Amino acid sequence: MGILPLGSAARPPAPPLAASTPATTASSVSDPTEPPKAATAASTPPTLSPAEMAAVAREISEALKPVAQSLHFSVDESLGRTVIEVIDSSSHEVIRQIPTEEALRIAKALDKLKGLLLQQRA
């Protein structure tokens, strides 16, 4: 005896799925190693050089100065990643950094490790 949802009458059991659905063929199964078809060159964002990223970070910081004087945008040169700092306007102390210093150190270590692994493969 199964548990039925409230207000539902007893229903006959559902037919087995194999009898009601067509068999899948090799052509209908997608290859998990292939990228999704929606990911095309048109949907990938353009890549910026480190100099362009630094210029964009400066522009964002300048544009936000009148509104948010405690935000500072920069680019970590070794990783090329944007870093956002929340700064106390009175003491000029960094209150919060995104990504954190620890996350940046881990990313640098992983990047170095990736380089070592590639050297060993070559």
Largest beta-sheet details: 3 strands, antiparallel
The SS-based structural class is: alpha+beta
Percent strand equals: 5-15%
SSE order:
HHEEEH
Number of helices: 3
Reading side by side through the largest sheet, how are the strands ordered?
Answer: 1-2-3
Poorly predicted residue ranges:
19-28
For the termini, the CA-CA separation is: 64 Å
Shape: flat
Secondary structure: number of strands: 3
Give the averaged pLDDT, no decimals.
73
Rg, Cα atoms, Å: 27 Å
Oligomerization:
single chain
In helices, the fraction of residues equals 25-40%
Descriptive report:
- The protein is built from three helices and three strands.
- The protein has helices at 17-20, 50-64, 101-121, and strands spanning 71-76, 81-87, 94-98.
- It has a three-stranded antiparallel beta sheet with strand order 1-2-3.
- The chain is flat.
What are its keywords?
15% strand, 122 residues, 3 strands, alpha+beta, three-stranded antiparallel sheet
Characterize this entry briefly.
This protein has 122 residues and is an alpha+beta fold. It has three helices and three strands, in the order ααβββα.
Question: What's the SSE blueprint?
Answer:
Blueprint: H1 17-20, H2 50-64, E1 71-76, E2 81-87, E3 94-98, H3 101-121
Antiparallel strand pairs: 1-2, 2-3
